[in-house]
Amino acid sequence: MSPRYPDGHVFYRKLWHDYPRIVRAEGITLIADDGRRYLDAAGGAIVVNIGHGVKAIADAMAEQARQVAYVHGEKFTTPVLEAYADALAAITPLPDARFYFVTTGSEANEAAIKLARQIQMARGQNNRHIVIGRWNSYHGTTLATLAVGGRKSARSRFLPMIHDMPHIEPPTCYRCPFGQQYPACGLTCAHELERTITAYGPENIAAFIAEPVSGAALAATVPPPDYWPTIRDICDRYGILLIADEVMCGAGRTGRWCAFEHFDFTPDILTMGKGVAGGVFPLSIMAARGTLVEELYRAGQDIAHGGTFSHHAVGAAAGLAVLRYIQENDLVGAAAQKGERLGQLLHQTLDELPGVGDVRGIGLMWGVEFVQDKASKTPFDPALDVAHRVFNAARDRGLMLYPGRGAADGTSGDVIMVGPPAVITEDEMQTVVTLLAEVIRETILPLLA
Ligand SMILES: Cc1ncc(COP(=O)(O)O)c(C=O)c1O
């Protein structure tokens, strides 16, 4: 594809990119107007968990739009909104959870940050305003979520404009930031939270935010089993609220409805997005333990966050229909079972390839990290843009992946994610992995020669 200044009047996300024009999508396949087909092995941005083109979802949305498409969420409720919240409460193991519906993952995290601050104030802890984040995490594109996020490439240009927050190192055992090895390390990365709390003063800290399973920046890095219980314990000891960002890893993606269910802890506030509506509606959710919402109520307050499109009736219909579809087809079970098979195939096929440093993941959320040298784990020079080379070569063969960079030190460390819809078949999984291996050989071997 030859980049040229785009025709027409769309202000595209990437001005240096030539966009295939997709006219239809079904299952895990996208179909372009020139007849080309793309295997959507990343469900877009790890979004489409139920597959494309599910008629039942489109019907539910159309029916809701016919009945009532929109009311202002501050003035009215709708039966569909209440039904969706009840259905979510039945499967989300957050005690007596309350669900706040917004449109993007960034906004859900923004709302979570504000709620944490408001809860601390309702407790008379007016100084608690700091939200600690982790390096190489991504929580969104707004200025507040960039402040708590740890993706240097996303933050750097806006640093003078944001109220920066402290960050701790992530639990990346493949490249331990402390040069240690699990379990001998005693979870230095988790205990860094306590050191940071002490350094900034617990009386100033409102919350800690992190992804239970890391998203694109660290490509499906799964922490050791005792990481999250240790973090939970530290937060409890210092009166700090724990926000789990499950915008990418939630909604069944990891083989459990919530990713935190793998790790024996319960957050105070949970955010979800992407897969909750499977891409058919821009729907995200901020959920909180019922006791927190009641605290707000008893303090005579509401959450100071809301938008024109929050609590949207068609959004709720989409979310509810997706949830029912997931349940009727046991797609959470499918993510667990097919994810294990996908992991097997990825390990068998990629582990020994030159240039592949690590293959990791859980459920249907997998990451591959590329290295120039396997023994030393030296990343490629970022100027080579290896992740995008792999992405481009894969796309040219009709395979869609999700690339990222910065897994090593925030700047270098190329990764790609494989996160297909849970309706993927065994044959399709084999095709995805075979194509990926061919693409890696084709793009990375010449760089190592
Ligand atoms: C973990 C995580 N949090 C938040 C976001 C932001 O979501 P959105 O792009 O819908 O604003 C993303 C998006 O990739 C994400 O992966």
Attribute tags:
alpha/beta; 449 residues; Aspartate Aminotransferase, domain 1; 7-stranded mixed β-sheet; Aspartate Aminotransferase, domain 2; 4-stranded mixed β-sheet; binds pyridoxal-5'-phosphate; 2 domains; 36% helix; 16% strand
What is the SS-derived class? alpha/beta
CATH superfamily of the largest domain: Type I PLP-dependent aspartate aminotransferase-like (Major domain)
CATH topology of the largest domain: Aspartate Aminotransferase, domain 2
CATH class of the largest domain: Alpha Beta
Relative helix content: 25-40%
Order of helices and strands: EEEHHHEHEHHEHEHEEEHHHEEHEEEH
Task: Describe the largest sheet.
Answer: 7 strands, mixed
Work out the helix count: 13
CATH architecture of the largest domain: 3-Layer(aba) Sandwich
How many runs of DSSP E, i.e. beta strands?
A: 15
Structure, explained:
The model has no long low-confidence stretch (mean pLDDT about 95). By secondary structure, the chain is of the alpha/beta class. It is globular. It has helices spanning about 45, 55-65, 80-90, 105-120, 145-150, 150-155, 190-200, 225-235, 290-300, 315-330, 330-350, 385-395, 425-449; strands at about 20-25, 30, 35-40, 100, 130-135, 165-170, 205-210, 240-245, 270, 285-290, 355-360, 365-370, 400, 400-405, 415-420. The protein is about 35% helix and about 15% strand. A hairpin with a 2-residue loop joins strand 1 (about 20-25) and strand 2 (about 30). It folds into 2 domains: about 20-55 and about 330-449, Aspartate Aminotransferase, domain 1, CATH 3.90.1150; about 55-330, Type I PLP-dependent aspartate aminotransferase-like (Major domain) (Aspartate Aminotransferase, domain 2), CATH 3.40.640. The chain has a 7-stranded mixed sheet, sandwiched between helices. The protein has a 4-stranded mixed sheet with strand order 1-2-3-13. It has a 4-stranded antiparallel sheet with strand order 11-12-15-14. The site of pyridoxal-5'-phosphate has 17 residues, from helix 4.
